[in-house]
Amino acid sequence: MKTRTIATAAAAIATTCGLASAGVVTVQYTGTGQGRTVHVASPEFNGNVFAGQLKHTISGGLGDDAEYNGNHLTFCTDLSQRVTSTPRTYEIVGLDDMPNSTPMGGAKADAIRKMYDFAGGSQLLGTTSTDLGAAFQLAVWEIITDYNPSIFGGNLSVTSGSFRATKTDGSSLWTGVQTQLAALLGAATTEGNGSTHLAGIRSTGYQDQIVPIPAPGSAVLAGLGLVCLTGRRRNTVR
Q1: Which end of the chain is less crowded, N or C, counting CB atoms within 10 A of the terminal residue's CB?
Q2: Please, what's the b/e burial string for 130-157 (b: 16 or more CB within 10 A of its CB; e: otherwise)?
Q3: What is the DSSP letter of 225?
């Protein structure tokens, strides 16, 4: 593992806080992981869509961005675009700058970080349940579409509001998905700040994805005791 300088660690902080773009990589969609096909109604898309883990391969990252190279399980931040199995150029950006068309901003990004904290990586395992995979993706879409931090509970519900989700036949979601959703959305609205370091891979023409910042960068931040003090700075299988 290469040695990092304090300047490099500072750049990592900027990425973690969503203050700056980290670089450019090549991204290729390779399939779905754990999840379920659901029906959604939203401002961006109405119809049946896969909700769950998406498999993407990142390559071409240079310097510190080389840590992103490899296979990832991701979750998308919007419903208006599609993934592509053709390698495409993406930017690495802060979570706050996702999705590309309408960046979510700091409050929604922090709610998603807290949800990642709560799940503890279980949503990123190949052994993740179909219910958790589906619930996690639905929760991401719900937060980005409907979250209002000034309202108790964040105004988060997939049965009302601008984003709604059901089974493909229009009936209520599976009990397991509902249970996972309630826990995830509850965690997203707890007090405090999220600590999971997340980045986004963003394209103007294809679906944007959430990717955890690779471990070496996070380890340096922890080792130096550096803390983000201020500021934080799109698509779907169908």
Answers
A1: N
A2: bbbbbbbbbbbbbbbbbbeeeeeebbbb
A3: T
